[in-house]
Amino acid sequence: MPRSKVYVKSVGMTTVADHWNDSILDLAVEASRGALKGHSKKPDQIIVGNMFSAVGARQEHLGALVATALGLAGIPAFKVEAACSSGGSAFNVGFNLVKWGAIDSALVVGVEKMRDLEPEEVSQALAMAESAEYTQFVGATFAALNGLLARYYMEQLGVTRDELSAIPVIDHANAVAAPHAQFRKAITPEVVSRSSMIADPLRLFDCAPVGDGAAAVLLVNDSAASGTKRKMAEVLGGKISTNDFSIYEREDMLDFKATRLAFKGALQEAGVAPGKLSTLEVHDAFSVVGALSLEAMGYSKRGQGAKDAKAGRYSRGSDLPINTFGGLKARGHPVGATGVYQIAEAYLQLTDQAGKNQVEGAKYAATQNIGGVDTTSAVHVFGRAA
Fold it and tell me: If you count Cβ atoms within 10 Å of the first and of the last residue's Cβ in the chain, which end, N or C, has fewer?
């Protein structure tokens, strides 16, 4: 079966923030209207990425709910859930439907409402990414699991506290000029190392914050891509892979196998060499996850991800700037929406709409969106539309 070219035609985003006066539907509609603005033709499908709307908003059936609110009742619509990789996974569904000719266009929306919950409730909701029968049963939070991973990483591979702080520092520097970012303030390694302890050795500034937000992208094929493609980004490849479900089941906890396989597969499909990427959006829900992700993708050697970040290898102006709008740590991490925010940001870079965050001459970009502790990883590769 011949495949179609697929493009991100337009995007919409809300600011990641405490949206006390907005519902989960309000956020999804705002982002969707941004992506649909100026497009008279209805999308063929609506796909919503979300992790825990039943817990956070007492609402399910998001697909039909969003379709109705947009005046698009009648269009098929559904929700995709894959923990924190829900947004990237929803996008992958839309990409494949358009790529293989099942539909000509899809509206992909990622949304999460987290701030209406108490902190303990957020912790319980995030823990649903892990095993209810084992991990949740003994009271291990998601932060605790990543804290154990960080301690193991530091002790096994000789990573220092200052080095672990490097990716959050990069994120906050990049978020200063990002209008949709939750925290637009630069920080130092000392700010990270002196912040409140969350799960030893992880401190507050090692961890992505809690926030509300929605992002949306409109996917089209050639027949639906009316007008110039200069303001579009082509989706060159995308893969999802999974790891053994819990980190304690894995032969090597420091090998992010799901990311390694998804990244390799996405680049192969795209026909893009790793060294050709101009920018990379990394899923750094915790500083250790960002470091291990860079190692899994082959940009840093084992044990060198945090060290390379400290040395400036991934900062703005480097050969491979990461998280150019602040990443999960500073742009924010409304979990089910994060993967779509990453894709919208890649689109902005490749269409020269990134403003002060623009990577000059950006030709290729990739996004990596994780669910669990590298339990699911969705990776997509983008290029400038020809």
Answer: N
Q: Is 333 among the catalytic positions?
A: yes
Same domain, residue pair 81 and 158: no
| Residue among 19, 84, 180, 283 flagged as catalytic | 84
Asked if residue 229 belongs to a domain, the reply is no
For residue 37, the enclosing domain spans 7-118+211-224
The pLDDT tens digits of the residues spanning 195-217 come to 999 999 999 999 999 999 999 99
**Reported pTM:** 0.97
H or E element in which residue 344 lies: helix 338-350
Strand order of the sheet with strand 46-49?
77-80, 46-49, 105-112, 213-220, 7-13, 233-242, 376-384, 364-371, 279-281
Number of folded domains that form the chain: 2
The torsion angles phi and psi of 145, rounded to 5 degrees, stand at -60, -45
In the annotation, is 207 catalytic? no
| Cα–Cα distance, 386 to 382 (Å, whole number) | 12
Give the pLDDT score at 101: 95
Annotated catalytic residue within 19, 180, 333, 380: 333
Low-confidence ranges of the chain (pLDDT < 50): none
